[in-house]
Structure prediction request, 413 residues.
Amino acid sequence: MRRYRNGYIVTERTVLSGSIVITEGDRITFVGPSPEAPPTPGAEIVDLDGGYLVPGFIDLHVHGGAGADFMDGTPEAWDTICRAHARHGTTRFTPTTTVARHDQHIEFLKRCREFHQHSPGTRVLGAHLYGPYFAAEARGCHPGAHVRPPTPDDYRPYFDYADVIRTATVAPELPGAEEFVRACRKLGIRCNAGHSYATFEQMREAIDWGVTHVDHLFCAMSDRAKLRLTQTFPMRGGVMEATLFFDELTTEVIADGKHLQSELLRLAFKLKGPDRLALVTDTNRAMDMPDGEYLFGPLDGGEPVLRRDGVGLTPDGKALASSVVGMDHCVRTFRDLVPEATLPEVIRMATLTPARILGLEQELGSIAEGKCADLVVLNETFHVRRVVIGGDFVQHARHLLHEKTPGSSPGVS
Prediction:
């Protein structure tokens, strides 16, 4: 049994000063003020040292880290990524594909099933089948050779792994998109719109099919300005306007401080709110790596990208190519750039909101009695000190990659 004291507990709606959480096994058994706590003789005491205890971060959109990409397909690559993201406070995530060959997606799904059972660090919640069903003109930094529309012959073999596919993305304007979404929904797979130049009306139709979420708001999507290139009047909306308009749609932002300036983050927060807006990293293999050249996607067939100035870029340096930071960085950045968001709201967008988007809010995403003991200890500057997954402390690598700040060493007594 373990008790946390001498700090702040960030719950779904508030911050409890000097309060405690008691965990037993992998469950939280009590949250509240110290005077109300039941006796816990022999419990391990964790001193928060004036810092914060928050729920474990949940990442809906993540490609890699520490030099590895999920599409590499090897156990060593997956092991590396799971350990790397745990250091940044992410306790659960959905490994995300890139555009690639059909056989590479099958290998990804096999590996996802394996790591869904056991992950050495951040736990795998299931797959996010992200590529290859993108609009070619909206593929962004993804490899272009295998972008394709969904056809039954192509996607039915993926459904042999439906038990581990939690989310699938498609551009709604593609031929076959409706049939793909309806087939996914019958299997309990949640569907996103992404990398799409769909019109507002096409997005309305996609909602009727079963699309409920939109990938990385403002990135690789149509808006009025893009659609103006093919039709000058009357003005019409695209994916961006539909995402902001329809309450049925949740969405996500890459809050790395490089993809979106403050005004776009604030607009998303104002219109969608903390319960329909999630923080994601969309990070590639260059997370925690030095500046230089990398591949986005598999080693066999990936797209060259650069890591420079804290973000991923295309080789010419003119366009973004995924992020290179962990979720803790996104939390700090959103808090700094969106001053109207309270601390519980910012934390909720990295925890409970993504859990709800995945349909897992009963088990994960908040510090509450009966929920899984996924916890992160942050210091006063919101840098990660300790990570708890399923009630167990994750052993950090000796070369902890966060900045050294006062009070950042583990505090267990």
About this structure: The mean pLDDT is 92.
